[in-house]
Structures are given as structure tokens and as C-alpha cells.
Amino acid sequence: MIARILYATDFSAASLAAWPCATELARVCRAELVILHVVPPLTAPPEGFFSADVFTRYWETARDEAEAEISKLVAQAELETLKVRSRVDKGRAAEQILLAAAEEQAGLVVVGTVGRTGFKQMFLGSVADEVLRQAPCSVVTVGPLWARRAPLATLIYPTDFSPTAQEAWPVAEELAIARGAQLILLHVMPEVPEDPRVSPSERAKLEAGYRRRAEQSVKDLLAKSRIPSPQVQTVLAHGVAEEQIVNQAVASGAGLIVMGTHGWSGLIRWTLGSIAHRVIRTAPCPVLTVGPQSHREEARRVS
Predict the structure, then answer these.
(1) What does R_g of the chain's alpha carbons equal in angstroms?
(2) Edge-to-edge strand order for the sheet containing 32-39?
(3) What does the pLDDT profile of the chain (303 residues) look like in tens digits?
(4) 181 and 301: one domain?
(5) Which domain holds residue 5?
(6) What is the C-alpha separation between 298 and 92, in angstroms, rounded?
(7) Chain centroid to CA 38: how far?
(8) From CA 299, how far away is CA 303, in angstroms rounded?
(9) Residue 75 half-sphere exposure toward CB, CA atoms < 13 A
(10) How far apart are the C-alpha atoms of 188 and 159, rounded to whole Å?
(11) Are residues 182 and 127 in the same domain?
(12) CA–CA distances in Å: residue 178 to residues 29, 83, 150, 181
């Protein structure tokens, strides 16, 4: 189970929107919650350099202001009887978040995806992109479309049954068991392209074959699962994967999507395209992404 969660905030509305998600996950996992704020570097003016005193005053003022804001969050967490502490670091936001995640041995990093410090251009050299690609642990992104603050009563686990997707299954399973949540296991089957050379009967056979293989893969996965069968709902859908994932999240009122990703690729990639990338941008709820084990181990060594 996840023992420590790192919540990174720049105190913008977007990053504070991720706070309820961080506290809910800390409560479900019975994890320690570490609040992190990164003070950005002070850029010297083009006509010269700041004195050492200016840098010192800037850092001390920024630190004091951050600690005052953090104290409000700490008080809220303590009212919920959560174990919480904080840290204020300085430097480039992404670098410091990654460093803190490694130092704290965090099991999760929680970030908002639109903020003052680079989050606006998500996946275009932004803080969120860098954290997602290089974090030594799983990452929860909370986007601007998450307005309902849905509790974690329903989780969605999208899978194509690949090794990458299967990396996320233990996380989804543990969260569902700990929360007593309904877990929707979603597989989006490929559509048979329209082709006049393919008869309706042949088309039906192909679709039936896809379904049989999917049903067997679901059966094999659940046979090794610890989660009680009444908690799992299997959904086999046709269509565009990211659209079906988001539609299912909307229809079920899901509080979290848990999915696997490929790391170190410039864009988060799942199956044959940047599906996770598009899901994160359009999901109505937070998205927990789990990178391959090899990626997480490499990220820890780099950090």
C-alpha cells in the first residue's frame, strides 16, 4: 500500500483544486501526506546582478509566505486526523518535485495541471509533463475539468491487457479494496473497419473473436485478483479508446481513473498512441498513471 503521498502546490486555484484529491487518497491509503511548495529562482535584471542580500531577502520572504499558506492546509489535514508535514524548497519546480519524490520515497505525487508555474502548457515542456515522464513513482494529475469533487466510490481501470496496462492493476486493486469502491474494468475493443470486401457475417465473426479474447483476458486477470467479484464491473466497449474512457468516467461519476503508461517518451503513451495524454487532458476526474517498473527504477537511480 502507498505509505507516503507528495502533494505539490504553487497555491494557484488549479493546484489547490488537487488538494481534496490528495487528502482523500491519504485517508484511503492511511498514508503520510507531504505538502511541497517550490520557490522559483529569482531572475537577475538584464542590466546587472542582484546582491546576495537581495537573494536572501527574496528567499526568506517567499519561504515565510509559503509557510503561512501551507499552515492553512496542514490545519485542514489535521482536522481530518491525517498525518501531515510540509517542506519548502527552491529551484526549478519540476526538478524539485522529482527530487522531493525520491527523497521522501513517495508512492504517489499529486499535481494540478493548470497553474502559475508552467502547468498551462501541459505536455509541451511543462512541469506536469516533466513530472509525469520522470517521476520515480505513480502520479495523480487533477485537471481543470474536475469540478464535482467526486469521492473515490467508483474507480475506472482501462486496460488493453498489455504488460504496461497490467502495471496499474495492483494499484487499482489496492485502492478499490481499501476504499470499498466499485472498480470498473474497461476494455475498448478495436472496431472492424468498414470494407465492402468484408461481408456482414465475416465482420460479425471478427467482432465476436475480439470479444471472446477480451472476455478470456478479463477472466484470467480476475482469477488472480484479491478484490471481491461483486466490486468489479466489466465493461467491453467499441470505439476510440480515450473517448470511451472519458465517457465511462462521466457516465459512472468516477472519482479516479487508474491506468498504465509508457515512460521516457516525450509524450505519455498507452497502446498505440498518446491515449493517456488525451485522457489526462479531457477526463472529468483525476487520473492516476503508473509507469513501467523499469522506468520507475531508472527514475530513482537518476534522482
Answers:
(1) 21
(2) 84-90, 32-39, 4-8, 108-112, 138-142, 287-290, 256-260, 154-158, 182-189, 232-238
(3) 799 999 999 998 888 889 999 999 999 999 999 999 999 988 766 555 667 788 789 889 999 999 999 999 999 999 999 999 999 999 999 999 999 999 999 999 999 886 444 444 433 337 877 888 889 999 999 986 676 566 789 999 999 998 889 999 999 999 999 999 999 999 999 887 777 888 888 888 888 999 999 999 999 999 999 999 999 999 999 988 999 999 999 999 999 999 998 643 433 443 433 788 788 888 999 999 998 764 555 545 555
(4) yes
(5) 1-144
(6) 21
(7) 20
(8) 6
(9) 6
(10) 8
(11) no
(12) 7, 17, 17, 8
User: Is there a contact between 15 and 43 (Cβ–Cβ < 8 Å)?
Assistant: no
Q: Are residues 228 and 85 part of one domain?
A: no
Alpha-carbon torsion (32, 295, 188, 213), positive or negative: negative
- How many angstroms separate the CA atoms of 193 and 191, rounded? 6
Report the alpha-carbon distance of residue 97 to residue 94 in Å, rounded.
Answer: 5
Domains held by the chain: number = 2
Q: Is 288 helix (H, G, I), strand (E, B) or coil?
A: strand
